[in-house]
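Input sequence (397 aa), recorded before submission:
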Amino acid sequence: MNGNILNNLGSLPAVFSHGSGSELFDVDGKGYIDFVSGIGVNCLGHAHPALVKAVGEQAARMIHVSNYYNSDKGLEFSKALLGKTGMDRVFFGNSGAEANEAAIKIARKMGHASDKAAGKPEGTRKVIVTLEKSFHGRTVTTLSATGQDKFHDPAFAPYTPGFRHIARNDPGSLDGAFDETTCAFMLECVQGEGGVNLVDAGWAKAACEAARKAGAIVIVDEVQTGVGRTGRFLASEEFGVDPDVVTLAKGIAGGVPMGACLARGKAADILVAGDHQSTFGGNPLACAAGLAVLDELSKPGFLAKVAEKGDYIRSKVSAWKLPCVADVRGKGLMIGIDVTGTAKGPATAAEIQKACLKAGLCVSTAGPQTIRFLPPLVVTMEEIDRGLEIFKTALAG
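Predicted structure, token format:
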């Protein structure tokens, strides 16, 4: 633990100085295969030439300009991102939580407008329905949206009211879930922090239809699943979900802090000047990085290779048929592996994570017994094989 840093991070005992591709190097020169990529952030890996070039050139021109004005890079990136997603307008922030805060504001204001138009008391339509085991951020409000009790520490109470959590993939959970008090349904198509849990496409479609029938909008949190992570630019494309609002962050700018809230239709027009703001949001440096990421992901075959590499990892780990591996699941390069321990006995995911780190592999956890792989989207097959061998050795105990 570094005494200079607040204790809330719980960082592991490694100090990194640089990286290349899907490898990291610590201050002593030891190399590590990176299956974390900054928790899905470094989608192009480390020191990617196109990203380095874009950031360097933009830094030499202009890093930041107030949102009192537009920047050329901001307008260029917004046009490209909207074209890629089919959305109408975008708000740029700095993180996934900030993007989700913007989405929540859009939903609440639309609910307010609906109450006013219907002559109902203001505040009637304010409830946002989310899923159990969801994760939407660490601000007080996005923690309230998160459907996991472990994140609702009473020390930080009171939490923001107006959220209802339902079970995913359970048809019965839709009974009475949406009514005249509901302004939005908010979901992740693959729950990252909740354990890399997949939402059933048929159930998701039914839930969205029920929400819209009740007069609510649909928000898809693509903070972790978006920007190619699942083998599609947006995971919602494959799940048949047609959102009114999409939130992005993580890999959107390849490591430069950025979040985005994209909206279409009436949801794109509800906010007016002064409703929401972000000092650093959409600065030219982040937008230049975002354009570089978008260019790389748009190359022919790039996303198909992401899907192929994910299939390869899951099939290879499953083929080991280790008794200590209970389940392997995921989409693209967003993979969850449930472990019961090692070949030598019980062990938690955190203990296996530390063993991997010691041996030269960075992995993350998504629950007490779930190891999560989020390698860079550019990870090579050779790097995958090296990383998996280290992981297999760690499972042997």
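Checked by second reader. The two ends are 25 Å apart (CA to CA).
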